[in-house]
Amino acid sequence: DDSNASIFPGALEVDCDLVDQDCDGTDWPIAVAPVGSSWVADFTSVQDAINASLPGDRICVAPGTYQEQINFMGQDLELVGAGGASMTTLDANGLGTVVILENGETSAALLKGFTITGGYRNGRSYGLSNDSDDFIAGAGIRVVGSSPSLQDLVVENNLVEGVGEYVGGGGIFAYNSRLQMDNLTLQQNIV
């Protein structure tokens, strides 16, 4: 019951319905919504919300398509598509990797409830080193030296084009990382 604080005081805000679970008027997540949405939101850009967040913050993203690339920038935060993957999309429009987690994010960094699409990486891998910068990989999600949690995602229609020894990971690329994954669908990603 979200209307009576005495029933469950101190309840955690466990979802992105923007309902104050313990009715105390605090602990609201950071909200992102596209222009014209019915949501009252703090931001219209997912990356702007990430840039303004602190470790441990939850960012709730309203249903819609967000044409941008995002980088967690080392932040252990929760980024949640409120409508789930069928209603909330991150689309890089062929401009690069859609989601980047390569700054030591831990399992407290959560990406949940999105379709990840439109990622693109190209180039030549010379194979001169075992350095991840030499890899032409990770158009959908690129994880380097991090251990994020990925849940309830559809990763589709991402493209890696390249020549060389280290070309791959059209949908997801992970290097020197440990991913926690649950309920992911990968389809139509091309290398």
General description of the model:
The chain is mainly beta and 191 residues long. 4% of the residues lie in helices and 36% in strands. It has one helix at 46-52; strands at 30-32, 58-61, 64-66, 70-71, 78-81, 88-91, 99-101, 110-112, 115-117, 120-125, 136-137, 141-144, 149-156, 159-164, 167-168, 172-175, 180-187. Helix 1 links the parallel strand 1 and strand 2 (58-61). The model has no long low-confidence stretch (mean pLDDT 84).
What proportion strand? Answer: 35-45%
Q: Give the biggest sheet.
A: 9 strands, parallel
- Rounded to the nearest angstrom, the distance between the terminal CA atoms is 49 Å
From the alpha-carbon coordinates, what is the Rg to the nearest angstrom? 18 Å
N-to-C SSE series? EHEEEEEEEEEEEEEEEE
The shape is globular
Q: Could you tell me the mean pLDDT?
A: 84
The class by helix and strand makeup works out as mainly beta
The strand count comes to: 17
Range of helix content:
under 10%
Low-pLDDT regions: none
Count of discrete alpha- or pi-helical segments spanning 4 or more residues: 1
